[in-house]
Automatic annotation (TrEMBL), chains A, B, C:
This is Rh50-like protein. Residues 20-413 form the Ammonium transporter AmtB-like domain. It comes from Erpetoichthys calabaricus (Rope fish). Belongs to the ammonium transporter (TC 2.A.49) family. Rh subfamily. The chain crosses the membrane at residues 12-30, 51-74, 80-104, 116-137, 143-164, 176-194, 214-233, 245-265, 294-315, 336-356, 384-409. GO terms for molecular function: ammonium channel activity.
């Protein structure tokens, strides 16, 4: 069977591990918070950066390895694939990002200096890959996913480095750098992997009672720890505090809105689990670019509502349109949850920057205009232009990078499943005996109530 | 179909969101830990309150949105309802509580000043609503649940404010303020929503193998983070330390006891999952009112055992009696897990207060007698009387509030399900094809062993 | 039915609880971080040890009560047993360890002084019991499991005390003290409980689609929080920081390796869920004994790869050999995941110690040679010998203790299930109606693809 991983996956992983081990051996050492020689008896060991960073790192870990895993396991016959390929892709992505980002940000004296702080940055790069993964879920082999990560991480890292180093924008939650980049990269990949037959639907594209519950639990893990995600890289103190407040409020308002729209847009007035699983999270992205600014809690609430509406309408109308007309088959609708919301967040940040002033920020104004210094400070309008430039750069590199990566993923021998075998765990996994039962659902849809006594 | 949410849920949520947005816009601003203007270059940003409060907030978040969700998903055909309606109710309750509690506790200079600290308080108010929710699980529509939260939060907040401001009692774990109030409010509501036919049982009132496992995982999430819940609002330092110690020990002893009683009270000598899911948690409530006092670890252990016994006997004998004789149908048995245990905890606190003295507490004695000050200090017996007064107040407002709320929930057009459609996800959700399989369990109970080889 | 718990479990638990309550009453008091009298107004309450220790304790709690629970629930008909017996055994083990370790380490002035720090130590003792539990999963009654914990905790505590007090070895992650001891103790027990018929397989020894997913989620919880486990008891500061770094890198490299080997060693080139569930974690143990040393990140990466290979080959070839030839039936393959990896880790630590010098560690060298002091300091080779001595001691006490415990568990009246009733929840639990469906899987293995269109 062409999809067999027997030779290809081990060979690819072996190559990647030798590469990683080589790079770790040659270039990676501890940073001053993790190196014994950097310590003196005078050190107050509890001042070590690890104590400030690790709690946020642990929360993001739960999001990446458990939240994403469960959320992606929503398909009736692709639960193993959702959880396990997320595990594989994430694990490689983080290690690879530690190296690549290391050369960009933490390289001096011929060494990459690492600590837990690097790990958080690497997990953000990993989140980028997993978001893009959502566009091709069930249509790609683990071999393809590893190659996608191999290519996406460097393209992302360089884009991120350019934005952080030269453009110095406000984007604490990563709405531009993470979500928009990840979304359009993923769309580029799935555009190249276009499968005409899937536009007629696919027998495996349904959920089960258990998979729907598992998936919404993934949503809840992401929901609960999203404030840690959006605040992990802000300035400590009130900035980080605001990031937590805004994320929580934005998520809450988008959740309420999602319930309302889900019932409203369903002809029977029933709630759809896929709306609950995805649209409720829109607010977390929408507040991202302004998450640490003085935008008021009410504004965070409003952003959650607006982002949720855009996301919901996207799922309803834009995703089908893109699949049929633009040949962009966005499996998990990442364009709705990460793209549209990211664009709204970018716009909100520009407005917030134009309105920022000393009366609101006092001495903290420089956190809005990072470059502000005697002589070379930026004006609000200048900063706004930098934000737009960052958006343009992210869009350009992600689309081009995605298309290029997609083209490479079409190479033969990457174990890509044929159309019939999409969204099917049997292709890549030994499955238990009851898989058949799962694969043959009993009869027609069950949600007609007259069946009841 | 009368249960349709198509118009009612969106309209209600729209109204609530407009209300929330209006109140946020007019009254909500940042507190000094989250406001940029309150910061100076001199500030040590790591001293920001957020670093003390956020870890406990995150733990409570997991309990509210994941622990409760899984625990409530124990029914075979109501897994979506358990997880998703918990999500909706909790999300609205927290936002609503931020406003209402804000006016009670954090309102000055014409503004409600918020930070993560407010969020913890709001999550406690949210826990109150979710506990009450347990009494009417599966018998109420999301419209009714939102209206219940809309009414319960203010009644709770005012009761809480009166107790904290004037009675100044010892109740760090909220056994009186949270658990007893939530329990009797919920019983009041379910009394008004009495459904005679349900006393003859209901076809949907069974569990499935998967729903039992999911539910016990919810128990474990609550169990693991309960120490954070009971210690989140204590004084920092040794008080908080004791709260963690006592909660962990109390939960452990009640868990061991629950296993013993579950096997003992079953005629076949088998363990019942519903006992493991609920009764094991009794200790967390029972230690609540004395959780930060110098009651000795042995006392926490004993409280866990006593609370567990009361809880177990309540499930076995009191719940059926209340359903048939008092017309109080307590779906999840909240009276056993939160009511009886809360009363025991209240009594324990009174005894602990009467025994408190300088020899045990030293300078910390004032944490037991909050009002202690030159001239107007309280004696132990006075403090004990205040505890009783708080109990009486909580009982009165919760029962009356619950009955009133229940009466309002009986209004037409709130999409309340008819008896036949109780505990059935099909009423409010698009369900997957395999729901039928779930809804028609194969044959008779399976736990007779002669069926085995 | 002989397996009935009706009398035996309640009686045993009653005895254990009376014992615990007695010991708590007579000997347990608060340590200086939890005792009110130890506080003065001058105290900075945030300096209380609880704030340094509790976050790590909470993470380990999730591993013990949720991670282990899910991982052990991989069997189709033993999901209740996996989750619930883990809950019971863990709860008793922690309480029992608080007492026993208390007498070993925290006993002075006639009292055991406890705080959250004791709880972390107790959870490690608990992890030891749960690892041993893996060897006899599904073949032992809860009565037997409690007696196993009752005996294993003291034997472990004394071994641990001897090693910590006199041998003073480097083993921050507990590869020797925890994993090797737990593994060989468990093998000793299962050797005594040898069941010849099980070597011909057992009808219940299969997984289901849901149980495989649940189990891998347990793996992910363990994976995510393992860095907290390995770093919880290191020196604060850079040592703890390195422990986190090494654990994360070691887990990542072993995860990648596990995917490669799983596909390579399967004749169809498919991934096996049991490999993903178990072998991915090998790196966490393998880095354990050197986890806080200056071994370089590359070394942690290499250790993860080596440990994973040993673990995978162990599952493939050693476990069957031990079951048939040595009459050691290792149900969960703990010898692969904890034994082989622990031995590799021990060897790595010896090499790392022999290579340790001032140029690498500077003033921190004493953390490698704990006893280093004017006059009586140890040399590297001396320290290496102590490591070997600790390994020998752990092996001796665990094997002997395990065999002794196993012999005692064979006593009658401990509700041990007969061969037919192994791995079957019906023996000890009231099961829901759909259990039959679960217990009769539809037809033959389903992973042949020609069945698809």
């Amino acid at each position: 069977f062409p999809g067999s991983l027997r030779v290809r996956l081990p060979v690819l992983i072996l190559v990647l591990e030798v590469l990683l081990l080589l790079l770790f051996s040659l270039f990676v050492t501890y940073d001053e918070h993790a190196h014994a020689l950097a310590q003196t008896n005078a050190t107050d060991h509890m001042k070590n950066e690890v104590y400030r960073v690790y709690p946020f790192f642990a929360d993001v870990q739960v999001m990446i390895f458990i939240g994403f895993a469960c959320l992606l396991a929503f398909m009736r016959l692709y639960g193993f694939g959702g959880v396990v390929f997320n595990f594989l892709t994430a694990t490689f992505s983080v290690q690879w990002a530690i190296i690549i980002q290391g050369f960009c940000h933490f390289y001096h004296d011929g060494k990459i200096h690492i600590g837990v702080f690097n790990f958080i940055n690497a997990e953000f790069a990993c989140a980028v890959v997993l978001i893009s993964f959502g566009a091709v879920l069930g249509k790609t082999s683990p071999v393809q996913l590893l190659i996608m990560a191999l290519l996406e991480i460097p393209i992302f890292a360089v884009t991120d480095w350019l934005i952080v180093t030269y453009l110095k924008i406000n984007d604490a939650g990563g709405s531009i750098v993470i979500h928009i980049f990840a979304c359009y990269f993923g769309l580029g990949v799935t555009r190249m992997l276009y499968r005409p037959s899937l536009n007629d639907g696919h027998a495996n594209l349904t959920t089960s009672y258990q998979s729907d519950i598992l998936s919404v639990l993934g949503t809840l893990f992401l929901w609960v720890f999203w404030p840690s995600f959006n605040s992990a890289l802000t300035l400590p103190g009130d900035d980080q505090h605001r990031a937590i407040i805004h994320t929580f409020i934005g998520l809450s308002s988008s959740t309420l809105t999602a319930f309302a729209l889900s019932a409203l847009l369903d002809k029977k007035g029933k709630l759809s689990m896929s709306d609950i699983q995805n649209v409720t999270l829109a607010g977390g992205v929408t507040v991202g670019a302004t998450v640490d600014m003085m935008v008021t809690p009410a504004c965070a609430f409003a952003l959650g509502v607006v982002g949720c509406c855009a996301c919901m309408l996207g799922y309803k109308y834009l995703t089908p349109f893109m699949a049929t007309k633009l040949k962009i088959q966005d499996q998990c609708g990442i364009h709705n949850l990460h793209g549209l919301t990211g664009l709204i967040s970018t716009l909100a940040a520009i407005i917030a920057i134009l309105m920022a002033n000393e009366d609101t920020y006092g001495l903290k104004l420089q956190s809005v205009f990072p470059d502000i210094q005697p002589g070379e400070g930026r004006s609000a309008s200048q900063q706004a232009i930098y934000q737009v430039a960052a958006l343009g750069l992210a869009l350009a590199t992600s689309v081009l990078g995605g298309l290029l990566t997609g083209a490479i993923l079409k190479l033969p021998f990457l174990s890509q499943p044929t159309d019939d075998y999409c969204f099917d765990d049997r292709v890549y996994f030994e499955v238990p005996n009851d898989f058949d039962a799962a694969s043959t659902p009993p009869g027609p849809p069950a949600d007609n109530l007259q069946e009841l006594p």
